[in-house]
Amino acid sequence: MTYKYCGTPDGPKSHIQDGEDCSYCKDWVKRGSPVITPESLAPKVAKVKPVKAKVKRARVVKEREHGTLPGYRQHRKYGEPVCDPCREAFNADKRAWREKKRANGELPPVACFPPRGVRVHGNRRGAQQHRRNNEPVCDECKVGERAELNASRAEKRAEASQ
Question: What DSSP element (H or E) covers 150?
Answer without folding.
Answer: helix 139-161
